[in-house]
Design a protein that fits this description.
The protein is mainly alpha-helical. It contains 2 helices and no strands. The chain has helices at about 1-30, 40-70. The protein is elongated, with a radius of gyration of 17 Å. It starts with a helix and ends in a 13-residue tail after the last helix.
Length: about 80
């Protein structure tokens, strides 16, 4: 059972690292540090925003799914079952 929880933790850390990398890219753009795979600051900042949004979206979706399962969300966030 503990191995399964460890694997779940590792899987949840991947989006955290992706979001952190996005923040790093945006910070580097602010301080005008151009990283190697990006030809311009604009593309580097855009890649940072995309990485941050994807990471936060995945973590938020996971938390919402878990809370819906445990009935801990407000009525407007409950799934509509018709």
């Amino acid at each position: 059972m503990t191995v399964q929880r460890f694997i779940a933790l590792v899987i949840l850390l991947i989006p955290v690292f992706i979001a952190g990398y996005g923040i790093k890219l945006m910070r580097d753009t602010l301080f005008q540090i151009l990283n190697s795979p990006y030809p311009s600051y604009y593309l580097q900042f855009l890649a940072g925003i995309i990485s941050l949004v994807i990471g936060v979206w995945f973590i938020g979706g996971f938390i919402l799914h878990r809370d819906r399962k445990n009935n801990k969300v407000a009525p407007k966030f409950q799934k509509n079952t018709k």
